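name: query_chain
kind: protein
chains: 1
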Amino acid sequence: MPRAAAPSTTSTTSTTRTKRRSAWASALAAGCALATGLAAPVPAHAAGAGPGTSYVALGDSYAAGSAIPTLSGGLCLRSSRSYARLVAASLAPASYMDVTCAGAKVNALTTAQTDAGIRVNGPQLDAVTPDTGLVTLTIGGNNLGTSDVGFVDVVATCTALAPTSPLGAPCRDFYGDTLAKRLDAVAPRLADGLQRVHATAPGARVLVVGYPAVLPDDVRQCVGKLPATVGDLAYLRSVLAKLNDVVATTARANGAAYVDTFGPTKGHDSCSPSPWVEGLVPAAPTLPFHPNATGERARADAVLGALRG
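structure:
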């Protein structure tokens, strides 16, 4: 079957970045009044990280808690309520370095991240040292799209194509096996990053944290809530499932533990009555299709549970 024509847009790099910043700005404005807070500290040894552990947090917006106040890190949009910050608050490590950054792709582990020629963040693996005892990492989702908003970029394409075949799956037809190939390309790059962590910090415990439940098992629950066809919603859910599978398999094959955060957030997806992952237009401060503060707390609990285990 021939692929559908690409959506009629003027998606230059400049326009994409402008739209991304606009979305971030809207989310930030909505969250200005949200009070901040961190979990009460518990002894580091109780979580299995070892007393005096040096902790480094790596990853993309799903690790940074982007657009959930309070924020730091410039365009990286790191939040004090990200799962990594909450884990650090619970562990009370000897030192904590947060180099997570919104828009990070897998190559941001080894290459400086730039936006319109401006350096946004240095190579994230530069933060790992021989003394590092704990590393958490969430990355790979931004490799799905052609822009630095990853999955949101794909959803935008699906939304634009929906009117062309309301009862079909025009987005699936348009992408074909393209997204699967992009995910397959993530595996060797992620493997290389994990091997570099081990080479630099051979004593570090490395946890690769998966992506949350963005869409429900029954995507019909999203009808009227997300502007994509049922066929394409099912397709998008399968892509997200493959993303977690690729990340999990690569982590385990390269000396890292995989932390499932899909399970802990299941039933609180973007189409649920009580979402921990927001939809296209977030009702709570966060980026579209990202965890809100409650979702980040659930993900932090999953990480702490894995450490204790």
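note: The longest strand covers residues 132-138.
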